[in-house]
């Protein structure tokens, strides 16, 4: 039986709320449903332009998750503070999530679509990783499958990597995912050999999750949002979370 944890990303609920204004649908209420259904954590990616979850949402989710599930806050540590967004490090200082996933996305990106170049980015990341460790947060670095420089992640104090699974999911949907899946598996093995733990996320769904987990060893956590929320429109949120948990448990 798999021990992989499911962390549900509720960003898309906030996007829908923000498109209309007001409070509905409420990402906190969605997170509550997910936790009650058995999800082990909640993921959010508060962007500086506030188009997804906001800093205020993060602080409220911190209280909602306390003692019930892990809060994972994603973000670009180099994005400058601005009105309504205090910067990732300051927001984490206020919220104290269990995990922070550092992602190299630019302000205008629709979604994260690449990982860090660890050989190039490690010197800039080191002081930020150290500061997050001092706050008691587990630090995960978003990386591409097949990336070089995994040893640098360990050297600068990260405890985990998150493998970007978007290219594999796209190839899998086209019926040609074997090579990308092998790259993900090799990256996971290399990370674990270095003492790093492994997360995975992006475009994972009920159609591909079991295949991924069966082939990629030792995945500690999957973060799933876009597909899960989309599927929940048809089947209901609690039922969809339970379906994912059943898939994970069966691997």
Protein architecture, described:
This protein has 251 residues and is an alpha/beta fold. It has a single domain (5-250), classed as Aldolase class I (TIM Barrel). The protein is built from eleven helices and eight strands. The protein has helices at 11-20, 27-36, 55-65, 88-95, 118-134, 150-155, 166-173, 178-193, 209-215, 226-235, 237-250; strands at 5-9, 41-44, 70-75, 99-102, 138-143, 160-164, 197-201, 219-224. Strands 1-2-3-4-5-6-7-8 form an eight-stranded parallel barrel, surrounded by seven helices. Strand 4, helix 5 and strand 5 (138-143) form a beta-alpha-beta unit. Helix 2 packs parallel to helix 3 (55-65). The longest helix has 17 residues, at 118-134. The protein is globular and about 45 Å long. The model has no long low-confidence stretch (mean pLDDT 95).
What CATH calls the topology is TIM Barrel
End-to-end Cα distance: 6 Å
The fraction of residues in strands falls at 15-25%
Profile the largest sheet. Answer: 8 strands, parallel, barrel
CATH top level class name: Alpha Beta
Rounded mean pLDDT score: 95
Q: Which homologous superfamily in CATH is the superfamily?
A: Aldolase class I
Total of helices: 11
Q: What structural class do helix, strand and pairing data support?
A: alpha/beta
Question: Which quaternary structure do these chains form?
Answer: single chain
What is the CA-atom radius of gyration, in angstroms? 17 Å
- Kindly report the spatial arrangement of strands forming the biggest sheet: 1-2-3-4-5-6-7-8
